[in-house]
Amino acid sequence: MRFFVPGETREGELRVALMPDVVSKLTKLGLDVSIASGAGEHAYASDADYEAAGATVVPAAEVDAALSSADIIGTVQPLDQDRARLLKDSAVSMSFLQPGRDLDTIRALADAGASAVSFDLIPRISRAQSMDALTSQALVTGYRAALVGAQLLPRFFPLFMTAAGTIPPAKVLVLGAGVAGLQAIATAKRLGAKVSAYDVRPASADEVKSMGGTFITLELEAVEGKGGYAREMTEDRAKRQQELLTPYIEASDVVITTAAVPGRKAPQLVTRDMVATMRTGSVVVDLASESGGNVEGSVAGEIVDVDGVQLWGALDVASSMPVHASQLYAMNIAAVLGLMVKEGELALDVADEVFDSSAVVLSGEVRNSVAREALDLPPLPEPEPSPQAEESN
Ligand SMILES: NC(=O)c1ccc[n+]([C@@H]2O[C@H](COP(=O)([O-])OP(=O)(O)OC[C@H]3O[C@@H](n4cnc5c(N)ncnc54)[C@H](O)[C@@H]3O)[C@@H](O)[C@H]2O)c1
User: Fold this and answer.
1) Where do the H-state alpha helices sit in the chain?
2) pLDDT tens, residue by residue, 383-392
3) Do domains 2-121+321-374 and 140-320 have the same CATH topology?
4) For ligand 1, atom 19: residue with the closest CA
């Protein structure tokens, strides 16, 4: 059984799906591991490091042949359609494939008769925590968001009591206290800032407090959806939330927004007028920039000046820390392979909730409902309810 990492082709993607430290986890599963020459370059992993760890390095000229013969292909970004077409019909591609977005790739994988597992769709159950790459990458982005805020702010984060006088700590406000938000809170707190946070899910209040932040309670109803995620809110509630948050934003030196609603455009939490209430020199970090932005006017990959406030739009944030982002992702891949490979053979079991949720394509059949709808395919018949439905975390 051959596991192959062809490397990333999308511009700006600096992560890699396998790090040398993780090779032995895969060889222990009975896999024959290979990686394209130079694939780990941006994550500071050399061909020699992979070879020393037990992987075979494939020269650039032989990558297409390796793709055609591999049983499992690991990438961060989905394969492009040309590469996907090369896969053999029993092969499985593992990546952050988005069923509503990566339609050309999904079509090409289906045409090849292959299968595809997406890290965007791993269910949030206890058993799958080690496989949850959305969480591992959100950890990286939350950490980076706090560092970006600290770096752009022309003030100190910590309290300083000096002979020349006292400097108060910076005030950081985090909107959205999921995985990234909690990590931003913890990091800003470690840097000495005074941190507060708001989330539509009241359940996040205890987590915010445990990270050392103050939870802001607004006189608004909760907006909790399935599996611990938020759901979309009404226009009225969104407007009221903006009004109630304005004084907190005005009083902050740094605002970090991390709010997402799965499968939808990010909700707009902060308007231009709200940003303009902050004193000049303040910073807003919008981690949701790539999915539409939590802050009006944010541009992914750019810093926009809004009345003297710097508005930083996130782009490929996990790639800005490619070593540990890749390390964690590679460990997520190893955990999923632990589920899919039994005694050195592929064992794709749709009765398993993790595989069932994350397999977008199985042996050429597109089985994810979002992808089927986007590709104008008729819905598949409803499966029989599983006798062993698992508890959500
Ligand atoms: N395996 C597991 O059990 C597991 C793994 C990861 C996360 N989780 C849980 O899943 C949940 C979502 O985590 P995530 O980080 O992926 O979330 P996410 O990236 O989908 O969203 C980030 C945060 O933004 C919040 N948000 C959405 N709309 C908002 C709005 N209008 N105003 C303010 N906040 C808003 C969400 O409630 C969420 O906390 C959390 O409860 C987390 O603890 C569970």
Assistant:
1) 20-28, 47-53, 63-69, 81-85, 103-112, 133-152, 179-190, 204-210, 235-250, 272-276, 322-340, 353-358, 369-374
2) 666 555 544 4
3) yes
4) 260
